[in-house]
Amino acid sequence: MQVQAHAKLNLTLDILGRREDGYHEMQMVMQSVALSDLLTITPGTGQVRANLSYLPADGRNLAQMAAAAFCQATGQDVPVDIAIQKRIPVCAGLAGGSADAAAVLRALNQHTRAGLTPFQLAQVGAGVGSDVPYCVLGGTALAEGRGERLTPLPPLPVCQVVVCKPPFPVSTPRLFARVDLRKITRRPDTAGVVAALEAGDLAGVAHRLYNVFEDVLEPRRRAKIDEIKAQLIDCGALGASMTGSGPTVFGLFDSPQAARRAEQRLREQYREVFLTQTV
Questions:
Q1: Residue 229 has what DSSP assignment?
Q2: Which of 2, 64, 156, 208 to pair with 135, CA 20 to 30 A apart?
Q3: How far is CA 145 from the centre of its chain?
Q4: Helix (H, G, I), strand (E, B), or coil: what is residue 254?
Q5: Has this prediction a pTM greater than 0.85?
């Protein structure tokens, strides 16, 4: 089987508190985009390979973990080999690994006729990674808890998206360690985003994009994020924000021409720039 694994964006990301299990209580509005990895799944012995040599292939790959979790949850023995053609930037806040895991779960559910509902499949994915449940469902959704509590939302009107990953990594654990809930003074208007989605108001959503992690970044990293956002807005984006724990920045456009101009402008400065759309 060949399956697509779609990247995700955070239209909003809020951190509400610290949980007893050590994780943070999150509230996020998530959105799928057409930018995707391509997975080829065949009968085999449980091996994984990718077009990027540095991706783990020793059982730590989320796609392998998802296959094992599916077999454990359903009691089936389905040894498969997984070939991953990576298109989604790695360690970028786009949930590329989680998207791959979700694609494996969907494919195995279809292949074995296990009959798990999307929400049951999402529960299996919750044991693999926090973003996997959302990636199983895709579309537009409110994610709460660690990301495992999902509420489908009216779809974001289809629009062009320019995605830009600057050339530096952001450590998610270190970023969480920098979070001081007492110092978070700006938060996304999650209720306003949901209301705008219900109204089919693309501009209303775009004007409310916000990610509290932007305020937690080191100053020099944040300056670069702000610079990319400003360029997207200058090119005609209705709104721009960082996704996940970064460092990827995206802008929403209602004009294909403006989106192409933004892509071309950013490509002059950055290697990983993509023009895609919401799905």
A1: H
A2: 208
A3: 16
A4: coil
A5: yes
> In this structure, which amino acid lies at residue 210?
Y
| Cα(152)–Cα(137) distance, integer angstroms | 8
Exposure on the CB side of residue 246, measured as CA atoms within 13 A: 31
**If DSSP codes are grouped into helix, strand and coil, which group holds residue 58?**
coil
Helix or strand holding residue 64 (H, E): helix 62-74
Q: Which residues are catalytic?
A: 8, 131
Which of 273, 161, 175, 152 lies closest to 221 in space, CA to CA?
175
Q: How far is CA 131 from the centre of its chain?
A: 7
Pairing status of strand 160-165 against strand 239-242: unpaired
What lies within 8 Å, CB to CB, of 33 at 6+ separation is 6, 7, 8, 9, 161, 163, 276, 277, 278, 279
